[in-house]
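Input (structure):
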């Protein structure tokens, strides 16, 4: 390529990038930020401004408190009875101490409302010690959801479209599946309050002591974009009709992970990516650097590739795999290896010591992983049992493998 053509090509690419940058920074395109930013001051389509102001007007300024510190600093007050705690966000970053605080707060006769895409069955299990569950999702650009009346008939069905840049976009709509860990313990403490029209559950109530815990898995339905419509406003009103008393605590602290341990941290790149003009300037800088690498660092002569000799390694691979299973006590060694890997996963993923495996160990791993305590006990005990068997059968090995795979596939 001649030098003149190289310069023209580079200039042409820069002009094209500048045109793309100008297009994506026009007022039409950047008028709204379509990210899910659940901040109380955010007036973007998926912000919290309207629900925040509505709840504040409902309770009155004197009865509305914003929590910007750990929950224990406020909610442990034993005089708090008949009040309401509200969290609305993409994820709820509660630690074990927060679960204890919220459990005691509900037990005294208060209400907790959590509207979050996150799995909050850790708190439900902490309160009931028997009810557990998981979040699942279905993908669609629209969902229909409503509240169940006393006859379990879905009423006031509301249509929620997920829109980005004024266009319908696929979205993962979360729903709940729950169960009781023990056959002789029912789930009377849990009441289903709302569903999608396909039957999936997205709104439940759990009774605990004198209070109630309300968990809604579709926080986007309470954002600015839907509350400006009468249908969306009515749905939100039906959900918050379950509030008792006017005193409201709005959690503005647990939207960010590890604040209690490390405090807020500044991330320059995160700020750049959150601002559309700066974000596109960053993309433009990266594109210019890429163009430079493509045109100015090329070798003058074509690299002559070295072709490696083809080898048929299929036989070696089969022999290697088969040798693992054909050697004496092969199944026993595999069980021991899988057990060590499982304990190593617990240590590295949840930062839980495995030196002493006792009741506290099982409870801690269960809360952090979202897997039932009895299932974790079964994995540990089965691994210990198989280590004392002189000859592990294929059926034993397969059964133990399924136990550990269930944990890996369903843990948080």
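Output (sequence):
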């Amino acid at each position: 390529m001649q030098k003149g053509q190289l310069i023209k090509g580079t200039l042409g690419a820069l002009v094209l990038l500048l045109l793309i940058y100008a297009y994506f920074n026009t007022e039409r395109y950047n008028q709204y930020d379509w990210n899910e930013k659940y901040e109380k001051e955010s007036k973007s389509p998926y912000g919290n401004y309207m629900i925040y102001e509505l709840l504040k007007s409902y309770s009155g300024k004197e009865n509305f408190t914003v929590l910007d510190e750990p929950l224990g600093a406020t909610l442990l007050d034993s005089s708090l009875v008949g009040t309401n705690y509200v969290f609305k966000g993409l994820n709820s970053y509660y630690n074990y101490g927060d679960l204890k605080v919220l459990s005691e707060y509900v037990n005294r006769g208060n209400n907790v409302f959590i509207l979050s895409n996150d799995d909050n069955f850790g708190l439900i299990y902490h309160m009931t010690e028997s009810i557990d569950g998981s979040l699942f999702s279905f993908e669609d650009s629209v969902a229909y959801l409503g509240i169940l009346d006393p006859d379990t008939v879905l009423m006031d069905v509301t249509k929620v479209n997920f829109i980005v840049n004024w266009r319908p976009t696929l979205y993962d709509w979360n729903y709940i599946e729950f169960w009781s860990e023990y056959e002789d313990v029912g789930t009377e403490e849990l009441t289903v309050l709302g569903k999608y029209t396909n039957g999936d559950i997205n709104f439940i109530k759990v009774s605990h002591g004198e209070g109630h815990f309300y968990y809604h898995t579709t926080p986007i339905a309470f954002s600015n974009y839907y509350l400006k419509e009468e249908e969306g406003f009515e749905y939100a009103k039906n959900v918050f009709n379950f509030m008792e008393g006017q005193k409201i605590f709005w959690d503005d602290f647990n939207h960010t992970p590890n604040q209690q341990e490390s405090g807020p941290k500044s991330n320059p790149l995160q700020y750049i990516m959150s601002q559309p003009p700066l974000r596109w300037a960053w993309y433009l800088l990266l594109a210019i650097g890429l163009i430079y690498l493509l045109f100015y660092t090329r070798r003058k002569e074509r690299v002559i590739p070295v072709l490696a000799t083809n080898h048929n390694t299929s036989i070696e691979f089969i022999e290697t795999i088969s040798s693992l299973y054909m050697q004496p006590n092969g199944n026993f060694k595999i069980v021991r290896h899988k057990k060590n890997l499982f304990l190593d996963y617990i240590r590295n993923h949840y930062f839980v010591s495995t030196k002493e495996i006792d009741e506290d160990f099982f409870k801690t791993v269960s809360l952090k992983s979202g897997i039932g305590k009895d299932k974790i006990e079964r994995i540990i005990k089965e691994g210990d049992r198989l280590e004392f068997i002189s000859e592990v059968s294929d059926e034993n090995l397969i059964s133990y493998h399924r136990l550990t795979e269930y944990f890996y596939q369903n843990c948080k």
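Notes: Confidence is low (pLDDT under 50) at residues 258-265. The CA atoms of residues 55 and 248 lie 8 Å apart.
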